[in-house]
Amino acid sequence: MRVLFTAGGTGGHFYPIIAISEKLNKLIEKNKLYNVELLFMSDKVFDENLLTQNHITLKKISTGKLRRYFSFENFIDIFKTVYAVLSVLIQMYKIYPDVVVGKGGYASFPALFAARFFRIPVIIHESDSVPGKVNKWAGKFAYRIAVSYPSAAEFFPKDRTALVGNPLREAVLSLSEGGAELLGLEEGIPTIFILGGSQGSQKINDTIMQIVGSLVKNYQIIHQTGKANIKDVENISKSVLRDNEHRDRYKAFGHLNDEAMKMSAGAADIIVSRAGSSIFEIAAWGLPSILIPLPDSGGDHQRKNAFTYARTGAAVVVEEANLTPHLLETEINRIMEDDNEREKMKVAAKGFAKLDAAEKVAEQIMQVLLEHRQ
Description:
Blueprint: E1 2-6, H1 11-30, E2 37-42, H2 48-53, E3 56-60, H3 72-95, E4 99-102, H4 109-117, E5 122-126, H5 133-138, E6 144-147, E7 161-163, H6 170-173, H7 179-183, E8 191-195, H8 202-215, E9 220-224, H9 230-240, E10 250-253, H10 258-267, E11 270-273, H11 278-285, E12 289-291, H12 301-310, E13 315-317, H13 325-336, H14 339-352, H15 357-373
Parallel strand pairs: 1-2, 1-4, 2-3, 4-5, 5-6, 6-7, 8-9, 8-11, 9-10, 11-12, 12-13
Helix pairs in contact: 1-15, 3-4, 8-9, 8-13, 11-14
């Protein structure tokens, strides 16, 4: 028996698949289905080690991408996509999985097309408040559709759609205590945790560098800059904070592994973040947040996600076009100085979080496998 996962190559697509596979592997063992093979088909792999750890075999493909702006590459990529579909049809016939699980993204289209061609059951999960093109199309024939935001359900058939939340890996679900000592934090000083997404954010980094000298007077800062940005940020911060008596309150990291992420969140009083899949981690941690959506994300999904989440009361949104050092510092101070507001945001965040999303999707996959075993 085989389960084929397919998705784009971003962390927002990849990590939920890992979360689902963690739960699915447990269900496979519980139901004693020892002959189940898990596969992942995409044009990019965000973290090959996680595939190995979860016993998932990679099936790499090459496909085209549909850009939302004029480009001659769109014309070339039509042929790439056609070639990918033909290639995947052959691979799918050889693999013939019992179920195909799609997370969206252009790279999932060939596998979903092949699944429809061979009448293989399809389960899709949509992480954004407004579905992407591939998932919107796949929803017309999918056996089951899982969504993270209530607004996304409006785009799919009601009888096959369920609001489950976004699957989160076990490694990032819970907060870790005791991180203050390892991260070199001062006891009793409020902490700001800044997340720029998996690649970091130049705009957020630049804005923070302009107010870091003022912020460290009252707060300590854990700043995930992105690997490519860490050297520049370190150089600028050293210069800006050279004569600041609180310079040790600023901690910059290019990348934070799972444990460091949980420690940072465990120490944080507020998070400043992009508005990608990190929204669901922030909600699971039950922390107030200031969201700065990426303005040119595909389909403007970060902006839509941010405002959908903010309407729960768990966050405030500052659009990048309006982002200034003064505005960001004012918003941080406003929230940090209002205990009642912060408590309301925490409650709203926890109310939004759905910690069993991965398990619910895995159960639907298992249902198909059990039906096929009979």
